Amino acid sequence: MRPRGELPRSTLSLLFLPLLFLPAVVQSARQQWHLQRVPVVLPLQTDPRPDPSFLSPAHLEVTSPCDPECHRAAPRPSYWDLRELLAFETLHSSGHLTETAVGIYGYDPRADTSPAYLVADAAPPKAPKAPVRRRRQIFGHDGRFSIAGRDHLLQYPFSVAVKLSTGCSGTLVGERHVLTAAHCVHDGKNYVKGAQKLRVGFLRPSQRDSSPSSNSTNHAEAALGSASYSPPSNHKMRFQWIRAKRTHVPKGWVKGNANDIGMDYDYALLELKKPHKRRHMRLGVSPPAQRLPGRRVQFSGFDNDRRGQLVYRFCAAGEETADLLYQHCDARPGASGSGVYARMWDRRRRRWERKVIGVFSGHQWVEQDGAAKEFNVAVRLTPLKYAQICYWIRGNFVDCREG
Question: Taking the model in full, what pTM does it have?
């Protein structure tokens, strides 16, 4: 008997069938990955730090009253500021902590023409009044889709989504590396409870949970975006867990979380103790929102209001700063740390390719003219952040010069 709320096999087949006969898409310059030379972020010196306490529970959402105008009005960081922000801490599974200073080469902050700095000389905005928190991370109709069936859950790109034992989500970006949000492991003052014995969960749906197979996951994404889709039945989902060996967190988060600009560095990289043996998603430098196909972003994660389910969503990108991308993708706590990605044409590889261009961070609100304005926010992978994360993964800068 078909579980209540799950689409019948014949209906899903009809949804996917028209997609097999879509005309070829003409690759325009606006829908292509534009490779660029990125700077070098190179570790210089590593020193031991006092061991963390691991006392505070992880907060699954980050809030900030600083809106896009507030972030654009922030002073442009100098070269020395950037070196401090991109220095990083490494938490080892033994509980020991180290701090690494970095050098930055091939980057001139004075030559940055990002729109984020067009109003750098403007007067700082007045501190916003604190409105009543409404926690509205669902904007209007809930546009999220629960992914059901082994054929989709274990198929790329849905298979790159993982769950952290602290309650957040993450994305596979290397053979043994997971990209997530910094607040999932560090509260801005110290490492959270569970960070020392952090585990990463890989979804293993039960054998009885099945759905019709598809020749391409592109069809699944397109069908979800064009058809009404009911959440699957509440089958028990199992996770295979792998311990994290190291956790890297930029000092921009550690030092900056006390103010609103700290959200710009809400990302972390986990190194697993053993390879996960799944396909991972490559990193990409975040392009301007207007260059994204349909100006659209998408990500999958484990929202805590749909326990045991992988949840996919997409939406149009909104405003942006040099470090943040604002959007109204529906999400709930638990989805933070998910990799925000886009799919564009790769001229060098001559194929369509998805790349992670950001990390879903959380919720922002600000009161303007007596009305609350709200956003969901992703941290963009700027050239410097790309260079830093790529080095963490590769262990050298030679393989990280183009992004």
Answer: 0.81
Burial class (CB in 10 A: 0-12, 13-18, 19+), 152: buried
385: CB partners within 8 A, 6+ apart: 86, 267, 379
User: Do residues 205 and 238 touch, judged by C-beta distance below 8 A?
Assistant: yes
- Quick one: angle between helices 217-226 and 9-16, nearest 10? 100
Which pLDDT tens digit goes with each residue over 154-187? 899 999 999 999 999 999 999 999 999 999 999 8
Residue of 71, 177, 183, 276 marked active site: 183
The residues facing 364 across adjacent strands are 64, 375
Is the CB of residue 82 less than 8 Å from the CB of residue 384? yes
Identified catalytic residue from 260, 264, 303, 330: 260
DSSP track, 147-159: E-SHHHHTSTTGG
Mean pLDDT of the 312-339 span: 90
Please indicate whether residue 260 is annotated as part of the active site: yes
Instruction: Determine which one of 146, 165, 336, 361 is catalytic.
Output: 336
Active site residue 248: no
Residue 223 CA to residue 217 CA, distance in Å, equals 10
Q: Could you give the CA distance from residue 395 to residue 175 in angstroms, rounded to a whole number?
A: 13
CA–chain centroid gap for 104, Å, is: 24
Concerning whether 276 is annotated as a catalytic residue, the answer is no
How far apart are the C-alpha atoms of 250 and 194, rounded to whole Å? 19
Q: What is the mean pLDDT of the chain?
A: 79
Q: Return the residue matching tokens 């990209």.
A: 179
Does residue 314 have a pLDDT over 80? yes
**Residue whose pair of structure tokens reads 């509440």 in the numeric block:** 234
77 and 220 in contact (C-beta within 8 Å)? no
Omega of the bond leading into 157 within 30 degrees of 0 (cis): yes
